[in-house]
Write a structure and sequence with these properties.
Layout: E1 2-8, E2 19-22, E3 32-42, H1 44-50, E4 60-65, E5 71-78, E6 90-93, E7 106-110, E8 114-116, H2 123-127, H3 130-143, E9 156-160, H4 165-176, E10 180-184, H5 188-197, E11 201-203, H6 209-215, E12 221-226, H7 230-240, E13 241-249, H8 260-265, E14 268-271, H9 276-279, H10 287-300, E15 308-312, H11 317-328, E16 335-339
Parallel strand pairs: 9-10, 9-12, 10-11, 12-13, 13-14, 15-16
Antiparallel strand pairs: 1-2, 1-4, 3-5, 3-7, 3-16, 5-6, 6-8
Length: 342
Amino acid sequence: MKAIALTRYLSIDDPQSLMDIELDKPEPSGRDLLVAVKAIAVNPVDYKVRAPNETNKDIVEASPKILGWDAAGVVEAVGPDVTLFKPGDEVFYAGDITRQGANSEFHLIDERIVGHKPKSLDFAHAAAFPLTSITAYEAFFERLGIDVDGSDEGKTILIVGGAGGVGSIAIQLAKIAGLTVVTTASRPESSDWVKKLGADYVINHREPLRPQIEKIGLKYVDYIALFNDTDGHWKAATDLIRPQGHIVTIVENNKPLEMDEMKLKAATLSWEFMFARSMFQTPDMIEQHRLLSRIAAWIDEGRIQGTAGDVMSPINAANLRAAHATLEAGRAIGKIVIEGWS
């Protein structure tokens, strides 16, 4: 089978950073599905794993390492313990960071973290959803404790980084829950994008946030989601969160986060990492199957818009390197998707 892989951790401008290779087709066991991958999407986790750093820069992998944690495709075969799917089912999923990724023609994935593909979408546009949908859903409805059925209607949320992949779905989930959404964007095209997705107010994260928040009539916000630069926005977030409010972040910090303001306000910080369930094989892994089913239903009902910003073809190393480069440079709006094997 065709696959795109690395053996060394290199800058994306190096042709060997991601390479076209051939591998044997795997066979499913246990609760695994073997999926014929039709489309993939790219996320910051892809380039963060691939990029050289002090820990990995001298490592040479003994066998090719495949990245990729967003896919849509068709179930080719199932393991003996599978109960949720059958061959021929169309699926979408984000995957498990502890296993080989989805940048291959055929991919093994545990059924408990897979959803049935939305019927209204083709494979390319379905592949844009899983990782960001799981991340935003868990961040809002599990970490922040927002009521998905609307009992928190009218409360305010500030989403820092609304035009990115996670922000694009998060805006829509917040509106489904009835929240007033303030989001950040720094360019005209990204501002237009978040307004299209339903943001009530758009402010610029490259300028001080408090004056912009006060200009729209707010002193504090009930919830804050940091989907960009936790270090850079932490001071503003602790200033703007209401007493007893709740902040969630998905971006690792590089320096200690000052907690004095959080303590005075009795505010809460939660971390969201969508791979935690599969990484630790938690007893509730199947919740990701269930939430993907809910997301698919909302898409088919027209309650969620597509978040694919750019669709490329075919799936090969050259296109995947170009997608990594765009993400690393911070130029992406929405999700970058690649479909079809050459």
